[in-house]
Each structure stands twice: as structure tokens, then as C-alpha cells.
Specification:
119 residues, Transcription Regulator spoIIAA, five-stranded mixed sheet, 5 strands
């Protein structure tokens, strides 16, 4: 898995490419998310449009990222979820945990339409 980072408006877009299977790539993404959090960037969109496959370790990586962002007053939202990955999210019932959108632009706009409530 490779990934790229792009800051747009009020969110950071992380585009995952290839197979999302945890391991060293997962550790790298974990570190990136913690760096973003430390810099106050807690609105994250994960673009899965170029993701070919995701296993349970990849799902764990996504849940960890979601927890990191939510514990920091932000959120991690999914965009461009392919049918095969959406099926995995449905089977694991994680589809009810993640906010997901048809496009990156919709996911970014959702932070304006549905802002995170801070306590």
C-alpha cells in the first residue's frame, strides 16, 4: 500500500493505493495520523478509490485511525468506497461506524454540513 496526503479546505485527504493490509504500511499511516493530530488537523478523509483489497488488518488500521481522530475531537470519513470493500464493511457491521461518501468532495463538504461537536 502507498498513500498520498493532500490538504483541502478544512480536511486532510489521504488517498490509499493498492492493497490495505496493515503491517509496516499500517504503522506508517498510524504515525502520519498522529502527526496530523499533533498539528491540530483532525478532520480526515480516507479516499479508497484506488484501493484494490483490504483485509482484517487493514480494517483494524482504519478503526485505529478513526479512534485517534475522534479522541482528538475530529473524525475520519471514507470516500470512494468500492463495492468489494463496502461489502466487507457491511459484513463486519463497520458500515454503521464510519461515515462514508460517494466522493472526496462530498466527504470534505460533510465537515461543513455536519461539523464535529467539541466538548
Amino acid at each position: 500500500m502507498n498513500y498520498s496526503i493532500d490538504e483541502r479546505y478544512n480536511a486532510v485527504v489521504i488517498t490509499l493505493k493498492g492493497n490495505v493490509m496493515g503491517g509496516p504500511d499500517g504503522a506508517s499511516l498510524h504515525n502520519t495520523l498522529h502527526e496530523l493530530r499533533e498539528n491540530g488537523k483532525v478532520n480526515v478523509v480516507i479516499d479508497l478509490g484506488k484501493t484494490k483489497f483490504m483485509n482484517s488488518s487493514g480494517l483494524g488500521m482504519m478503526i485505529s485511525g478513526l479512534t485517534t481522530m475522534r479522541n482528538s475531537g475530529g473524525d475520519l470519513r471514507l470516500a470512494n468506497v468500492a463495492d468489494r470493500i463496502q461489502s466487507l464493511l457491511v459484513i463486519t457491521k463497520l458500515i454503521t461506524v464510519f461515515k462514508h461518501y460517494e466522493s472526496v468532495d462530498e466527504a470534505i463538504q460533510s465537515y461543513e454540513d455536519d461539523p464535529i461537536e467539541t466538548e
